[in-house]
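Notes from hallway chat w/ T.B., transcribed later so I don't forget. T.B. wanted the structure written out for a chain they're using in a teaching module, and asked if we could keep both sequence and structure tokens in one place. Agreed to drop them here.
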Amino acid sequence: MSKQQKLEQHLLADIENDNSWDEKKLGADIEHAVPFKTSADRGLNLKLISCRLQQDLIDDLKHIASSKGINYQPLIRQVLTEYVSMYHKKYS
């Protein structure tokens, strides 16, 4: 892994582990809210959602994701995708 990739991974981890959003230090003022969609969102057909989860569950997901070398949001996508796939196999 290059020095740049390590730096980017470190910065992404810092962002993912930042509680500023959860503590309403950032993102709480509707005046500054604007729709935002990246090219990755469009390319992967991703849609931003909001979901309330218990803090203990979030902490566990972050720990598991860290051990897999990914961020917790992609881990949640993987878990949900696997669950839906198993459900379809079982009930279709």
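Follow-up for T.B.: Residues 3-91 form one domain. Might be a good example for the class.
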